[in-house]
Design brief:
This protein is of the alpha+beta class. It is built from 17 helices and 21 strands.
Amino acid sequence: MTWFSLTVRQWGRMTKFLCLCCLSLLLVVSCTPRPQATTPTPGSINTPTGDGRITIGTTAKPRTLDPADAYELAALGLVFNMSDRLYTYEPGSTEIKPQLATALPKVSADGLTYIIPLRQGVVFHDDTPFNAKAMEFTIQRFIQNKGKPSFLLSDTVASVKATGDYELTIKLKKPFAAFPSLLAFSGVCAVSPKSYELGAGKFKPNIFVGTGPYKLAQYGTDSLRFDVFDKYWGEKPANKGVNVQIQTSPVNLFNAFRTNTIDVAYLSLEPDQIRSLEESSKKGDLQAISAKGSVVSYMVLNRNQKPLDKPEVRGAIASLVDRPLIMQRALFGQADPLYSMIPTTFNVTQPLFKDKYGDGNIEQSKKLLTAAGFSKANPAKVQIWYPSSSPTRALAAQTIKALADTKLDGILQFEVNPVESATFFKEGPKGLYAATLLDWYPDFLDPDNYVQPFLYCSKGSVAKGCEEGGSQSQGSFYYSETVNKLIDQQRQEQNPEARKKIFADIQTQVATDIPYIPLWQNKDYVFAQKGVSNVQLDPTQNLVYKTIKK
């Protein structure tokens, strides 16, 4: 959803949150917001109109609209479109650019102090002026109110202070080169000091008062209405407002789009529905827009369980995995093969697993298993676990098992086991599973996000593996003092080229030690009716409302 050194307690908390994310091929959040008194009248925001407003359909129901407590895609996508952050992303790019800031931060030589100049002439939706004091309040509230994503800043920020009317100074607890990307997280958006308050648990889930191009006009259980904010400082939206229609299932979303009830459909359709709409788009009946996603999937290998304690067995599995076959059978081609822990979204990625192990490299897999002492009479047996709520991971696991069954002459045998999602995320860090299939949703975009939470270990040894840290939390129990040092180095390194070299060293070590096997990188899909234009996704999976017009 780049991260930082998390304690075991915090990683345990993080695991609970990721349970929500990893249920989210359907992206349905269980809690339902309480409607405001201004509930829409029947039909008032449920169909496309000719008034220049855009109707967007989704199955993603927000639990809250309070940025300090929003930690699910359903909420963050809405907050994103009503807000401004200090920094943001260009669609299609992972490079940040100033938004409420007027320039990138000035960073002290020790990497601990960030001085940020702020934009003037900005007002909140309640007419409160935006300034450094307001941004100081926003960041303090994000930390002090202790919402679900609060650790993103509380573990990193030592202090935040308005050091001028339009100058903000943030001091960090320790150097973190990816910190500006963290400030682009949707939940770290400016909120009005007049409409919100500080204090643990003091959230306002049913309102939103920021500085963005839209104001929240209505918030009901199955619909929202965004009106254009006429005092917005930046470029005004290309439309006259947005109606968000929350469908109860992918089938309902699919049917609503097919019957022209909605202009744009995004999050979430089933793979077969996506395939059907893609075919229709080829005939010119509608528009299909796809973008390289930031969500990735890995196989986690527990080095503390036999036979995965043998590097040859881990290498044999890496050689066996056939990503193109998995793309075909489990994902209908709606993902890209991944050959590094770091996705191709970033220019530091290197496809080392393709170079070293390939896809479906049966002879290499057999050779490694034989070298480890396994045979048809003495097979290596590995259990693969995955959340029962994930049909994609079920198909992926079965595809890997079928490869071993048909190609390896019984030398490597997989047992595939689904488990209820809450149990899956609770038991994984305890070391109960030999191998698991894990989806990863980034908080914000930096290669560190795909490395530190998986490989860093704050307490452990070569003999026992990781006892506290990211790799323990993810269930691999990987321990490497070399990788720990490299992660610390890239977090302190401000020079992009020097940092890129460090990431190359990390990827080389991972391809050698194989605590994880990268599998695929999702594609994001959004569908629009004919006559609708400028439909864009930003790199963090947000549909950008303000550019859409018809």
